[in-house]
Write a structure and sequence with these properties.
With 443 residues, this protein is an alpha+beta fold. Among the domains are: 175 residues, Porin (Beta Barrel); 122 residues, 60s Ribosomal Protein L30, Chain: A (2-Layer Sandwich). It is built from five helices and twelve strands. The strands form two sheets. Strands 1-2-3-4-5-6-7-8 form an eight-stranded antiparallel barrel. Strands 9-12-10-11 form a four-stranded mixed sheet. The longest helix has 21 residues. The protein starts with a helix and ends with a strand.
Length: 443
């Protein structure tokens, strides 16, 4: 018996056979039971069930493994009890790898059908024969290191005293020897972070900040954060990770890079020079200058020193009735020759103008005086100025502020007919428009 176990030990430690290991865990030790059935019609044989079936194997490469298998059994052949012993060198090929994977194998060894208990040696010359075998099997991983195996093989051993036979083996395998560079208990084959010690639940990667997100998937591996932000913290709770937040201590919006916009002017507080006053981006978030306070910025205000309306480009309301008055016949006041006296008809027009100026309190007017070419040019110039001043005095007397009135005299420089001929001068005297005071709105 001692000699038997010595032979078994030598077989398992010196010859390596593939059984259920993979490239991830190259070594495998297996223990199982075997079922042997003689395939020879010339003898009457039963099917024998025996234990153990032992093997040691080593994965090589490209799906191939080599190793050794030792089996014991007993069966009845021609009404005689026969002890069955087999030892084989085996080459195996994994068809695929995974939690369940099939494989093929072939081998060569010795099979002994020993009926004489007194025969010397484990494989005596009578009842032992060289054996060629081939078969298939399947392995099931039940944990990282434990596997259930099932295989069947046809074994050809036709020498005297031996028989062709089938052998079926079922058992367990323990796989080991996987390389684990970082010594974290996860083999390099399965370790996503093979050079950094980690945790099995994170496929061998560490979780430095302890936030439940492995470092290889954590955008902020040294700061605890949430899965929604890829492991990064959000100090102000605005949904923008601190690393991307321009204002990490003030809740804002993603559109503003995590900063608030207190005045709602579309410019984030961190770049807004007037964060509490709505302004224009072009003016760094501050309100534009508005000298007249009408709500229209000076740069857009056509009348920056007069309060007006945005619809009128910052200018006061358009005085339509006043313009209609000035552009009509009522704006012309006629005088008699060489006179600056205002007639009753002209006074009525001035009264109407006064009412309009009261309505449009922001409007100023220019009073233009004219004269015909009768008399000298200097005389006519002074006469036109007297007529303009006479109209101004009348308007002031009716309540118009003098600061709103400006006078100018054109003398005879703007005739309506040709003064070079007698006929022209005659026509100019008849056309009352040459002797007039004209009112014009200040633009």
């Amino acid at each position: 018996m001692k000699k038997l176990f010595t032979i078994i030990l030598l077989s398992l430690t010196t010859v390596f056979v593939a059984n259920a290991q993979t490239s991830d865990s190259p070594w495998a030790v297996s223990l199982g039971a075997n079922l042997v059935g003689v395939q020879d019609d010339s003898v009457d044989a039963s099917t024998g069930f025996g234990v153990p079936s032992l093997s040691l194997s080593r994965y090589i490469a490209a799906g191939f493994s080599i190793g050794a298998q030792y089996s014991l059994n007993s069966l009845d052949i021609d009404k005689a009890d026969v002890d069955y012993t087999a030892i084989d060198a085996i080459l195996k090929y994994n068809i695929s790898e995974g939690d369940i994977y099939p494989y093929l194998f072939a081998g060569y060894g010795l099979s002994s059908f020993k009926a004489d208990a007194d025969s010397e040696g484990l494989f005596p010359s009578s009842g032992a024969g060289r054996t060629y075998l081939g078969g298939a099997g399947v392995s099931f991983f039940i944990s990282d290191n434990w596997i259930i195996n099932a295989s069947t093989s046809y074994r050809s051993s036709s020498e005297k005293g031996s028989y062709n036979h089938l052998q079926h083996v079922v058992g367990f395998s323990y796989v080991f020897g996987a390389q684990d560079t970082d010594q974290d208990g996860v083999s390099d084959k399965k370790d996503v972070c093979p050079e950094i010690p980690g945790l099995k639940e994170f496929e061998g990667c560490p979780d430095t900040d302890g936030d439940g997100i492995p470092d290889n998937k954590d955008a902020c591996p040294e700061e605890a954060g949430s899965a929604e932000l890829n492991g990064c913290p959000d100090s102000d709770g605005d949904g923008v990770a601190d690393k991307d937040d321009a204002c990490p201590d003030a809740a804002g919006s993603a559109e503003m890079n995590g900063c608030p916009d207190s005045d709602g002017d579309g410019l984030a507080d961190n770049v807004d020079k007037c964060p509490q006053e709505a302004g224009e981006a072009s003016n760094n978030g501050c309100p534009e200058d508005d000298r007249d306070g009408d709500g229209v910025a000076d740069k857009d205000d056509a009348c920056p020193d007069e309060a007006g309306e945005a619809a009128n480009n910052g200018c006061p309301e358009v005085p339509e009735k006043l313009i209609s008055f000035i552009q009509g016949e009522k704006s012309t006041l006629l005088f008699v020759v060489n006179s600056a006296v205002i007639s009753d008809e002209s006074n009525a027009k001035l009264k109407e103008l006064t009412d309009l100026l009261s309505t449009y309190s922001n409007v100023n007017v220019i009073i233009e005086g004219h004269a015909s070419s009768d008399g000298s040019m200097s005389y006519n110039q002074k006469l036109s100025e007297k007529r303009a001043n006479s109209v101004k005095d009348a308007l002031v007397g009716m309540g118009v502020d003098a600061s709103r009135l400006e006078t100018i005299g054109y003398g005879e420089t703007k005739p309506t007919a040709d003064n070079k001929t007698a006929a022209g001068r005659s026509a100019n005297r008849r056309v009352k428009f040459e002797r007039k005071v004209q009112l014009k709105v200040v633009e």
